[in-house]
Structure formats: structure tokens, C-alpha cells
Design brief:
Layout (H helix, E strand, L loop, with lengths): L13 H22 L6 H8 L3 H4 L6 H23 L7 H17 L1 H10 L8 H25 L6 H20 L1 H4 L5 H20 L11
Length: 220
């Protein structure tokens, strides 16, 4: 099982470690977006973060450590915001709609961060990558749970593989708003994009459940 990595720091003050790493991550995201991971140096990250290269190496061992911290923090933030938005008490099609809308809003707010994840996660070490991918699957699992509850509450017979595919579609279509923004955001507003993706989700549910034709999932 992929476990969270402990990134070495010579400093023992946990509060200071968190502050310095937050500064590093913020600076690194900006540089990775502009230049890419491989063309960015640790010296540039230190300068962007506001301290010396010597200070930087008191909190990490390598540039790969910084990329790991970047990915870990971004996924934590996105996951936390999604969890706050999802209502799993009584799942209706409106709950699904609100969940997708909230997720897309989070992606819109964190476009640069998501773009860095999409472009640079492949540069993680073989030790770090499984953990980061595991966190991604945890977010997909939140949508699986939402769709599973919706299926049960509405007497639908969605199969496990169908639920998983619908959940992955939501997750990827959200990320697509960021990494395809050069094309999509010239055509759609966020509201238009979200509404169309919700309609595609509903069509997928109808197809898998055999309820085609009318729109039984729309509120009266």
C-alpha cells in the first residue's frame, strides 16, 4: 500500500517547517507552470519563496521533494473542498448536480495548480508516484460513493463498473477545464460547461439504467 512519504528536514520546528514549505510550494507552482519541472532550479524556487538556497535545503533534500510536496498539497486542498461541498445524506439528482458544480468551481479556482499536477506528476520518483495516484483515486471514490447512493436511493440498477466509469468521467471532465482551457474557455463559460457536463452525466445514467427517452432525473 502506498504510504505518505516523510520529507527530510534538518529543522525541528514543525510550525516553521510548514510555513517554509508553504512558501516553497507557492513559488514552485508558479515556476513549474511557467518553465516546467525539469527547467526549474532549486535556486529559482528558493528565490521565488523569498529565502536563500541554503535555507531551502534545511527543509527538503531535492527538487523532487518539492514536486512531491506540491502534488500532496494540491490534492489535499482539492479533496478537502470537494468533501465540504458533497451532501451524502439524501442523494438526489440535484445533489449530484451540486457536487459536480462544486468540484468544477474548485478546479476553476485552482487552475494553475491542477495544470501543474497534470503536466508534472510524471516526474515524481517511483517512491512518491503511487502515493499521489492513491490520493487521486480517493477523490474518484468520493464521486463513486455519491453515484452509488444516488443509484440506491432511486432504485437504479447501475453496475459497479458503470458507477466507476461515471465517477472517472466527472473527475476527468473537471480537470479538463484546466488542462484544455486554451480551447474550452474560448467557447464556454464555466456555467455553460458545467451544465453541459451534468447533462452528459444524466444521459450516461439513463443509458446504463435503461431509462432513456424522457428526462426522469430532472426536478419537477
Amino acid at each position: 500500500m502506498a504510504e505518505k512519504q516523510k520529507v527530510y528536514a534538518s529543522v525541528k520546528d514543525e510550525r516553521l517547517i510548514n510555513i517554509r514549505r508553504e512558501q516553497m510550494v507557492k513559488g514552485a507552482i508558479s515556476l513549474f507552470k511557467e518553465k516546467g519541472f525539469h527547467r526549474t532550479t532549486t535556486r529559482e524556487i528558493a528565490r521565488k519563496a523569498g529565502f536563500s538556497i541554503g535555507t531551502l535545503y534545511e527543509y527538503i533534500r531535492s527538487k523532487e521533494d518539492i514536486l512531491y510536496l506540491v502534488c500532496d498539497q494540491i490534492y489535499d486542498e482539492v479533496q478537502s473542498k470537494i468533501q465540504d461541498a458533497l451532501n451524502l445524506k439524501k442523494v438526489t439528482i440535484e445533489t449530484i448536480r451540486e457536487g459536480i458544480t462544486s468540484y468544477f468551481l474548485v478546479i476553476d479556482e485552482m487552475q494553475d495548480e491542477v495544470l501543474v499536477l497534470y503536466q508534472e506528476a510524471k516526474s515524481l520518483t517511483k517512491e512518491s508516484l503511487p502515493y499521489v495516484l492513491k490520493k487521486e483515486m480517493q477523490m474518484v471514490a468520493m464521486f463513486e460513493q455519491l453515484i452509488q447512493l444516488f443509484s440506491e436511493n432511486n432504485g437504479l440498477l447501475l453496475k459497479d463498473k458503470e458507477i466507476k466509469l461515471l465517477a472517472h468521467n466527472i473527475f476527468v471532465h473537471g480537470q479538463m477545464w484546466s488542462f484544455r482551457r486554451w480551447a474550452l474557455q474560448k467557447i464556454y463559460t464555466l456555467d455553460e460547461y458545467t451544465n453541459m457536463q451534468v447533462e452528459l452525466f444524466i444521459q450516461g445514467v439513463q443509458t446504463f439504467s435503461g431509462k432513456k427517452g424522457d428526462h426522469p432525473f430532472k426536478p419537477a
